[in-house]
Task: structure prediction
Amino acid sequence: MNIISKLFSPKTTTQAKNTTKGLPPLQTTSRRIHIKSSPEIAKMRESAKIVATVLKEIESMVKPGMTTAELDAYAEDKIRQMGATPSFKGYYGFPASICASVNQEVVHGIPNTKKVLRQGDVLKVDTGAYYQGFHGDSCITIPVGKVSKHAAKLIQVAEEALYQGIEQVKDGNYLLDIAGAIEDHVKKHGYSVVENYTGHGVGKNLHEEPPVFNFRTQQIPNTKLKAGMTLAIEPILNVGSKHTRTLRDRWTVVTVDNSLSAQFEHTVLVTENGYEILTDRNKV
Result:
């Protein structure tokens, strides 16, 4: 979930009200980056596994004619059946367990019984699970039925960009190594990187330090990666302009030019020799 860019920053000190039973009081973290211990990493593996399972199952069930509300109900039921709590529901008042963003919707799309998926749609599904004190967070872009060649290419490049960034993760590398790899891959294919929404640290809080940008910037310190960090890396690509706007529901973000958008996200552990993808759907 990308809410970090709008409601969370290193300067934020206010607490956010959470209406979801079972979650601790939500608050922004301090500027200190939390290095996870081995027991904490073990718990994060479990929360991330739940997220990966839910997304893998949703990916297999999506078809034209379904509503995004149906997908949300399925996700919430599955998360709870696995002993976890939906991370998103109630977070800053968000009303659902998944973000379901279609076509020109960039992030934070609210599931709706009237939002019917159609052949050729590009669907982003983002979800999180809170289990034994820790969050997992991941997003996938799903082609609904047969999509156009240019839509399929966008989805392909978005997923490739995520893995280009992940390949830069290891103890001793820097955040801007991730950002640069993502930015270079996206621009090589002629797409734009959405700059208003970024990745983030994840763990006891859904959004923690550090912000994980998808483009080179001097806005944040170029933090050195250390083993035990857990990062939500999540590039967002648009076919056209990088600029976005928020709809009247105060959540759904869309491209300003109505161009297609795609996103992928994994929760990733920094290790001494590289990385571990905690939300790897191939391992569930």
Observations:
- The chain is about 25% helix and 25% strand.
- Confidence is low (pLDDT under 50) at residues 6-30.
- Residues 19-283 form a domain with the Creatine Amidinohydrolase fold (CATH 3.90.230.10).
- The radius of gyration is 17 Å.
